[in-house]
């Protein structure tokens, strides 16, 4: 048997061999790693060999970005998130918006968007009849006055405002105006960031604007765009008395933006965002804001008096256009055309007539119907205004003492029909008592009701629909379907015809063009 010493020597020898083998293996591993490492490193830290554009090449864009950042940083601290709690109205307790609200806003937001353009209703169990809404607002003074939309705070029992610094403050309602869809609320605070008023009358299409607000609950959002158009008319056919003159913009405005400001490049408020027109309910390039020429005097009055009263003439008006101007002997296509005079209204008592063209108000030129509507609505009831009108080619001065819009008589509206057909593509019927009841036409509406509109006809091209009532043909009043057919038959071949139409509770002039071929 080997001795203990020999065994130890043998183990020592084996240890030396094993140590040498491990050392060689480590060297081999390190060599392998060093050979592979450059390849791995190159893959992990791949870099581009293309240099960025130098500042001189994109200086204009960088300057624009810097300007927009400065502007947004200036305005955003004055933006607030408005949360409202209110009692549900009887027709909202089921979880749905009122039928008339669904009908109106359905035009703009598509099916299922009856909750309105800035206010989202989340119904709690029916017995509580409580609803919650959200919107936006803008601080206009350091002592806490805030402007928002009337539809955001309508019916509110509690209003809470989230500031840009995350403070949540209770707010009280100072005053609201359903006609212009404006409201003023106030928080108890001082030295608040605020934004100054701008002059919307100096806006031009193409100017840069920014819209601020809280769309979809995403607080303190800013979007950039341009002024797409100015003086857009009131789209709410359910109330023709509401003023238009809206600013149209492609700066994105979505549900929740209502009540937030539209500002110009100087950071001044030139409008209050109020609605969008979209088939889907989300922004599709057409948002609308109330211009400050309407907002500021309304807000000033609400802060001073807590309410506002609008002057009221009681006439329906439309723009003079190149298409209808010749029928009223207007040569410059400027003015507001009287399409309706309500019985016993200030306009009726002053002697205004359908077909009169308002050219001036208190010596100031009137460019279109929207401008006249705004000017009259901002005057106090009881004020006497002096209109210069064009009637049958002659200038006539007409003084009108304005009534209170809030006290005006409410009238019904709607439409349907029965009778003939002709080259204009119209099927007509006499306006019988049954038909009058069916279309809910007031007693002073006299004429022939449209029963059918032929597809592709002159009537369809003019936008006529079954249920519309023809009151005049070429400035001549008609009483029956036969009267209309006779008068239209007198129109020479190739010439247009002018119709006065009652529809949806108001009158409008439509021009029928002869079909070609």
Blueprint (SSEs and pairs):
Layout: H1 4-44, H2 59-75, E1 79-87, H3 99-109, E2 130-139, E3 145-148, H4 150-153, E4 156-162, E5 168-177, E6 182-187, E7 208-213, E8 221-232, E9 246-249, E10 261-263, E11 269-276, E12 287-291, H5 292-305, E13 311-312, E14 315-319, E15 336-341, H6 346-350, E16 357-361, E17 364-365, H7 369-377, E18 384-391, E19 394-401, E20 403-404, E21 426-430, H8 433-439, E22 448-453, H9 458-461, E23 469-473, E24 476-477, H10 481-489, E25 497-503, E26 506-512
Antiparallel strand pairs: 1-2, 1-4, 2-3, 3-6, 4-5, 5-6, 7-8, 7-10, 8-9, 9-12, 10-11, 11-12, 13-20, 14-15, 15-16, 16-17, 16-18, 18-19, 21-22, 22-23, 23-24, 23-25, 25-26
Mean pLDDT: 80
How many β-strands, per DSSP?
26
The strand order across the widest sheet is 1-2-3-6-5-4
Strand content: 25-35%
- Radius of gyration, CA atoms, in whole angstroms: 35 Å
Task: Characterise this structure.
The protein is built from 10 helices and 26 strands. It has 517 residues and is α+β, with helices and mostly antiparallel strands. A hairpin with a 5-residue loop joins β4 and β5. The radius of gyration is 35 Å and the shape is globular. The N terminus is likely disordered.
